[in-house]
Amino acid sequence: MDPLALSVDVAASGLKAQSERIRIVSENLANAQSTGRTSGADPYQRKTVSFASTLDSDSGGAYVRIQSVEVDGSEFPVEYDPTHQAADENGFVKLPNVNPLIEMADMTEANRSYEANLQVIRQARELISMTIDLMRAQ
User: Fold this and answer.
1) Which of 2, 76, 137, 138 has the greatest CB tally within 10 Å of its CB?
2) Nearest Cα to 5, choosing from 51, 60, 57?
3) Does some domain include residue 138?
């Protein structure tokens, strides 16, 4: 496989993986206040993304992919609010285990990784264009 095409393919796999990560982080942020609907019910559980690298023996490229999307098993914070619909018999409500600061940091990191992969594709496209221009000049 052409080295430029390989670099575009590898970067595209990174774009796809980071796009999915951004979607999961967005879902976490959207549900950061989603409590249970009934007394004592569990609220929304934060999701996490794990990546894996896959080596393509034919091209020699190392592609990134989503290995798994799992729920964060950390404890739910609780708040005393006996008037809430999801309050237990003691008046405590379980809140989602989503920390907006951590989610925003994850979003920033995913966005920067996405932009870096996009820049690789732009550079490869520019190199291909320059090669075509050189070939035309001959």
Assistant:
1) 76
2) 60
3) no
- Which residue has better confidence, 94 or 138? 94
Residue linked to tokens 């980071």: 18
Counting every residue written for the chain, the total comes to: 138
Q: Which sign, positive or negative, has the C-alpha torsion 76, 74, 25, 48?
A: negative
Range of the domain at 20: 3-133
Number of folded domains that form the chain: 1
State the CB neighbour count (10 A cutoff) for residue 57. Answer: 6
pLDDT digits (tens, 9 = 90+) for 74-83: 999 999 999 9
Indicate whether 85 belongs to any domain: yes
Classify residue 97 by its DSSP letter: S
Give me the helices (H) in the chain, please: 3-30, 100-137
Q: What is the CA radius of gyration of the chain?
A: 22
| 34 inside domain | yes
